[in-house]
């Protein structure tokens, strides 16, 4: 069959499986997750063999070192996948939870019940461990899923898919509850994102180019973020020690993540106290600094920042620095140039902190904390499927709750409307 027919068949199977998974109880879903973990543990040799094939093909095709590193399934990463499945099994099951139940004057009770979204399509690149993360979160939240990994990881993903099927079948759940696309044809992506009759939501995990394409072409709702242009603003009422530690961590803890700070905003009233020491410590670890005119006046050795720098997610040891006159100027800069991902203020002024929390239009807003905390695990979600900068449904790190919705429920006792 051609790719369109193949994807339609996957969609139909996923829709049928979604109805069964939605009514599975917590015990059954956890049994599947633990059985998947056992199957992965028993299949270490098969996983290593499949991954070696992908790595060899990747080297032959000229994949760079960073891509090959993300592709590799080391023993430690297999351990991580197994532990991840077991951890998700311990998380509270959101499906069926009832909230806000209250009596109304008519005598009926009205509340909300958390329910699965249905069928979730996930498109991702490189890292085969995403296959396990996505499958576990979708299953625990009562959804069926169609996973389309990158062509560079096709052998690894199929080996993992075999373990997932074993776990589902052992728990008495349909093997089609988690389907990993078997073709590397790029047309599969186009089909997956234009099947609203079978797919309820798409989650892209990858580079900006992939996410832009999916956002533009999809006929299915997309949970996404394009950029992680994150800011730290150091207020003139900041504690110097806190400011330096947070600003260093936000940039240098890891360079290639979406929650890494890309622009540092510093109140001009405290710049002379913090910037020289910060600049010295950034330079010591190889961070290139680019600054506005006032920054260069204080630190003549930094490169001049351009308009483009304020719009750039570097994902590299490069940092833009801008001096501002007050918090409101910092907020205007963040809301104009930022990507609505994660932004932080360093201040000891509680009133200003509250204003910053209220007025910065981002999915995560922080006070006296590093932007690197914008992560599902760090937020206590156990795991995440990705981060959303959208404003409808899920926003910020998307965990089990973000993969569910709510419906109203009404409890009566023969009540009729008068």
Work out the helicity level. Answer: 40-55%
Widest β-sheet, arrangement of strands = 10-9-11-8-7-12-13
The count of DSSP E runs of length 2 or more, i.e. the number of strands, is 16
User: How big is the Rg?
Assistant: 24 Å
Q: What is the count of helical runs? A: 15
Average pLDDT reading: 96
Q: Which secondary-structure class do the elements indicate?
A: alpha/beta
In short:
The chain is an alpha/beta fold and 418 residues long. The protein has helices spanning 3-22, 26-42, 44-60, 65-71, 75-90, 129-140, 154-170, 187-192, 208-217, 240-252, 271-284, 293-298, 307-310, 327-337, 350-359, and strands at residues 98-103, 109-116, 119-124, 144-148, 178-180, 201-205, 230-234, 261-267, 288-291, 303-304, 318-324, 342-346, 364-367, 386-388, 396-398, 404-411.
Account of the protein in words:
The protein has helices spanning 3-22, 26-42, 44-60, 65-71, 75-90, 129-140, 154-170, 187-192, 208-217, 240-252, 271-284, 293-298, 307-310, 327-337, 350-359; strands at residues 98-103, 109-116, 119-124, 144-148, 178-180, 201-205, 230-234, 261-267, 288-291, 303-304, 318-324, 342-346, 364-367, 386-388, 396-398, 404-411. The mean pLDDT is 96. The longest helix has 20 residues, at 3-22. Strands 10-9-11-8-7-12-13 form a seven-stranded parallel β-sheet, sandwiched between helices. Strands 5-4-3-6 form a four-stranded parallel β-sheet, sandwiched between helices. A three-stranded antiparallel β-sheet has the order 1-2-16, with no helix packed on it. The chain has 15 helices and 16 strands. It has 418 residues and is α/β, with parallel strands linked by helices. 43% of the residues lie in helices and 19% in strands. The radius of gyration is 24 Å and the shape is globular.
């Amino acid at each position: 069959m051609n790719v369109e027919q193949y994807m339609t068949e996957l969609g139909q199977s996923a829709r049928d499986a979604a109805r069964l998974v939605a009514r599975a109880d917590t015990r059954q879903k956890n049994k599947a997750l633990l059985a998947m973990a056992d199957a992965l543990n028993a299949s270490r040799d098969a996983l290593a063999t499949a991954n070696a094939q992908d790595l060899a093909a990747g080297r032959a095709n000229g994949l760079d070192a960073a891509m090959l590193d993300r592709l590799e399934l080391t023993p430690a990463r297999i351990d991580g996948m197994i532990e991840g499945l077991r951890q998700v099994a311990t998380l509270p099951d959101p499906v069926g939870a009832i909230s806000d139940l209250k009596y109304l004057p008519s005598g009926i009770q009205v509340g909300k019940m958390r329910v699965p979204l249905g069928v979730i399509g996930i498109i991702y690149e490189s890292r085969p461990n995403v296959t396990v993360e996505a499958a576990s979160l979708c299953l625990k939240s009562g959804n069926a899923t169609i996973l389309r990994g990158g062509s560079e990881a096709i052998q690894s993903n199929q080996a993992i898919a075999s373990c997932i099927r074993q776990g589902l079948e052992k728990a008495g759940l349909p093997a089609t509850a988690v389907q990993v696309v078997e073709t590397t044809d790029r047309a599969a992506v186009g089909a997956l994102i234009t099947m609203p009759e079978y797919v309820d939501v798409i989650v892209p995990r990858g580079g900006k180019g992939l996410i832009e394409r999916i956002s533009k072409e999809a006929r299915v709702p997309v949970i996404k973020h394009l950029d992680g242009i994150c800011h730290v603003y150091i207020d003139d009422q900041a504690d110097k020690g806190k400011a330096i530690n947070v600003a260093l961590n936000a940039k240098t803890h890891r360079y290639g993540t979406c929650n890494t700070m890309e622009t540092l905003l510093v109140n001009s009233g405290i710049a002379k106290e913090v910037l020289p020491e910060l600049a010295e410590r950034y330079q010591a670890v190889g961070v290139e600094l680019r600054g506005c005119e006032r920054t260069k006046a204080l630190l003549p050795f930094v490169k001049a920042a351009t308009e483009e720098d304020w719009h750039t997610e570097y994902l590299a040891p490069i940092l833009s620095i801008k001096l501002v006159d007050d918090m409101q100027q910092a907020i205007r800069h963040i809301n104009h140039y930022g990507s609505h991902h994660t932004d932080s203020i360093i201040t000891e002024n509680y009133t200003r902190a509250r204003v910053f929390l209220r007025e910065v239009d981002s999915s995560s807003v922080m006070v006296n904390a590093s932007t690197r905390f914008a992560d599902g695990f760090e937020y206590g979600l156990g795991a995440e499927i990705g981060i959303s900068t959208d404003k409808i449904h899920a926003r910020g790190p998307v965990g089990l709750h973000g993969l569910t919705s709510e419906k109203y429920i009404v409890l009566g006792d023969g009540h009729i409307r008068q």
